[in-house]
Write a structure and sequence with these properties.
Radius of gyration: 10 Å
Largest sheet: none
Strand content: under 5%
Order of helices and strands: HH
Number of strands: 0
Structural class: mainly alpha
Shape: flat
Distance between the termini: 15 Å
Amino acid sequence: KDLVVWNLMGMLRWGEVEVAGEEEHEMVYKLKEV
């Protein structure tokens, strides 16, 4: 489960950058964040 947490942390970091460019990514990252 530790790897999953690290992956989420990394995706959220990159997600913020991608979300700024595409709104579709925001939906995906929000679903993963929940």
